[in-house]
């Protein structure tokens, strides 16, 4: 009876409530805006050349293969930062009390789910019977499985210095003075999915500058490269993945990712980390997941399986792959004995880069044991890594505690407790490197890393998070990706406080403060240093067609002084402040977005630089038409690189662009999407950056003579 009454009430809400109109209208845009904000912050905090395809791979996958809210797949919503830990618990509680969800408006009856949250998750969820226990047969796999093929071509249209002709003698004298291949990037990807339970994929990619089927490489250069020279796709990866097969909870063969706890002991691939921070920074480890992107760094290649029964789950995994490294010494068999650094770019464009390709064999074996009951969960992770050659870094003051040697062991314990209005989480990890004198002689505390946090929801739409981290200066881990300032979970302490408040209907306030201290030197500071990061974002939905936000951020860190008159480089403070305003609105078949950002950089050496960015986006998406167009016109003006701004750009499917804009100029692009037939979708994008204060762009092999740089992308997506 209770279920019947609830269904009737929800049905009338679906007919008359304003919220449902908003959900249908802004759901896709709301999800897109959330991803834009997170990626822009990630680019600003880290590497603007990072492979965002890998990071957002799950978002795209679940937008095309929605999550069943009536299954355990709802854990993915928490991991993707689309809901918080309390909303996750309320979803499970609702299902226990009232049974399966029937339609989207039923979420309005779940405590903590407002219009904005429902709009964000609407594009990637579905409602139906939990089929995770259904038996899989070859007939079902063949009949109900979905196939997809994606082909992409892209190129910088202007000529770059690295593609100019050069004689063999000049090339041999300077081996890294020319690219080996053409300026084209090719990518071909095949994926198969059966109800999110069985997945398979094959991805192949050739980057700009890498040799392909035809090239202008002479026999002399080929002889120098030996067996390193090859034609065809530079990267080839595949995976075969299945889950929920009785006691086999997950199994994978090929390329895959691992993620447990808070990321201190094992978390391969990218993570939003601080860039996705808000009212809660607690991570939910996904365990084993297949890797379908063309990223060539930080993943496993081999096999893994998770078995479970009752409250216990256990995972074992093995990985054996060749990685890029800079060789410093070889033996008589021409095999690497010592390497000076690991290469993470995945580019093999020059003779030097190609010689570094697959120079080092990396083997990893380990496992994870998890116990979960009621509101409590605890896990233990252990893994050991071998390298086929010894890693010997070029000595410097700041890297003496970095990993060196041939092998390392990592282990850690993570926990999570969620009940009522409180959530506690944390992880502690320790490393052991038998090949390192520094590591062997270090104290246990120096080799330890830990974080602990608490999220509280005192009332309504009000969340607070407090988290403390302490990563020892000798903690070494090749697969650590926990919350931190920067990219290394080593030699850092920090205290984070975040809050999310809904002060009134359709208003949302998000803020955090992160104070951090480096306990050892860094590449930019010749002494222990400290800093802070303050963030405030106020957003408002005026109506179902208009929303806006104002964002303020101030980040202070330390670096070495560049004062040429100083006797030595001493640490100084520098601060970057930014103010960003964004408004989205629509009219009929048009959607508009206006963005403006102001950046201010200053340091103790007296440097004071400014920058601004303004853009107008126009999207034309007519209903019941097989095409859409998106256009951007932007201008930027900054005093230098320090005052740069980052602007997310709409792109072809599975591709993401967040360029750093600096100096003076304009940026325009046009993106088109067309479905000539039901199963085929074509994308094309052309963009250009035009500078008004220079006649050369970039330097070295990427140098372009002229004041404009034009990029072209063409993609075809065929679903079967």
Please, could you describe this protein's structure?
The protein is α+β, with helices and mostly antiparallel strands. 15% of the residues lie in helices and 45% in strands. Helix 2 (18-45) crosses helix 7 (115-121). It starts with a helix and ends with a strand.
Structure characteristics:
about 725 residues, alpha+beta, 24-stranded antiparallel beta barrel, two-stranded parallel sheet, 12 helices, about 45% strand
Mean pLDDT: 87
Shape: globular
Distance between the termini: 43 Å
Number of extended strands: 33
Tally of DSSP helical segments:
12
Largest sheet: 24 strands, antiparallel, barrel
**Which strand-content bin applies to the residues?**
over 45%
Residue stretches low in confidence (pLDDT < 50, at least 5 long) are: 1-27
Helical residues, percent: 10-25%
Computed structural class:
alpha+beta
Report the C-alpha radius of gyration, rounded.
Answer: 26 Å
Secondary structure layout:
Elements: H1 2-16, H2 18-45, H3 52-55, H4 57-64, E1 67-68, H5 75-79, H6 85-98, H7 115-121, E2 125-126, H8 138-144, E3 146-156, H9 168-173, E4 184-194, E5 198-206, H10 219-225, E6 235-245, E7 248-259, E8 287-290, E9 300-309, E10 312-323, E11 325-330, E12 336-342, H11 351-355, E13 360-373, E14 376-391, E15 405-419, E16 422-432, H12 437-441, E17 448-456, E18 462-471, E19 492-501, E20 507-518, E21 529-543, E22 546-560, E23 571-587, E24 590-603, E25 608-620, E26 627-638, E27 645-646, E28 660-661, E29 664-677, E30 680-691, E31 696-697, E32 704-705, E33 708-719
Parallel strand pairs: 1-2, 12-14
Antiparallel strand pairs: 3-4, 3-33, 4-5, 5-6, 6-7, 7-8, 7-9, 9-10, 10-13, 11-12, 13-14, 14-15, 15-16, 16-17, 17-18, 18-19, 19-20, 20-21, 21-22, 22-23, 23-24, 24-25, 25-26, 26-29, 27-28, 29-30, 30-33, 31-32
Helix pairs in contact: 2-7
